Amino acid sequence: MNLIAAADEAWGIGKDGGLLAHLPGDMKYFRETTQGKVVVMGRKTLESFPGGKPLKNRTNIVLTRNGAYQPEGVRVCRSREEALEALKEFPPEDVFVIGGGEIYRELLPYCSRAYVTHIFHDFKADTYLPDLDSDPDWRLSGTGERREDGGIAYEFRVYERCAGFAQ
Ligand SMILES: NC(=O)c1ccc[n+]([C@@H]2O[C@H](COP(=O)([O-])OP(=O)(O)OC[C@H]3O[C@@H](n4cnc5c(N)ncnc54)[C@H](OP(=O)(O)O)[C@@H]3O)[C@@H](O)[C@H]2O)c1
User: Fold this and answer.
1) What phi, psi does 33 have (nearest 5°)?
2) What is the largest CA-CA distance in the chain?
3) Three-class DSSP category at 47
4) Residue-wise pLDDT tens digits, 5-61
5) Strand partners, 64
6) What is the pLDDT of residues 78-134, one digit of tens each?
């Protein structure tokens, strides 16, 4: 399966429950990449979306340990194991882990490709993605052109797993 994230120079991904920057070009890339696919997220990430609503035109799988939690339009899984079982229904290449920090950490071992929007700034985040540059199981396989939104520079990077476990 895949992982998709926007991370700053320190691999920061979030602060105070929200994203670090508003980058319309990155939102478009995220939408196009995950359109029609399966997105897997933590309960806090779902709640960070406008109105706490799931993403349209995608199968939304949400992890929570709260047995009573059942928002409309999402499939809820109560453990990593339950999520991995549910994901067997889908081709692994159609599955995208979309955050946040806890879920990236827990599902990274099962991912074989990571789409990382690298933001050229350090926002002093409070939530992080594991550093794939210093992980010997991962290698950078492609980098897009440097672009800019609202004065913030970023580029699209793709990492591939080259060793270790992946589903
Ligand atoms: N830059 C990016 O690409 C990006 C993408 C997504 C999110 N974010 C940011 O990341 C932050 C949120 O990340 P986060 O780490 O705080 O939260 P999170 O990963 O979105 O959600 C954490 C929640 O997931 C549930 N959970 C975690 N592991 C579980 C397991 N094994 N089994 C069942 N449930 C499990 C728990 O929910 P319960 O507490 O309900 O049990 C936990 O509190 C926000 O700032 C958000 O904006 C950034």
Assistant:
1) -70, -35
2) 45
3) helix
4) 999 999 999 999 999 999 999 999 999 999 999 999 999 999 999 999 999 999 999
5) none
6) 999 999 999 999 999 999 999 999 999 999 999 999 999 999 999 999 999 999 999
Q: Ligand 1 mean position to 152 CA, how many Å? A: 25
CA distance 13 to 9: 10
For the Cβ of 65 lying below 6 angstroms from any atom of ligand 1, the answer is: yes
| N-terminal to C-terminal alpha carbon distance within the chain | 7
Residue 82 CB contacts under 8 Å (≥ 6 apart), including other chains: none
Q: How far is the CA of 69 from the centre of ligand 1 (A)?
A: 14
Per-chain mean pLDDT for the chain:
97
Q: Which residues contact 133 (CB under 8 A, 6 or more apart)?
A: 140
Strand spans (E) along 9-112: 12-15, 18-19, 38-42, 59-63, 75-77, 95-99
Predicted pLDDT at 164: 82
Question: What CATH class is the domain 2-161?
Answer: alpha beta
Give pTM, 2 decimals: 0.98
C-alpha 13 – ligand 1 centre gap (Å)? 11
- Give the whole-angstrom CA distance, residue 46 versus residue 92: 21
Amino acid at 152: I
Domain boundaries, the chain: 2-161
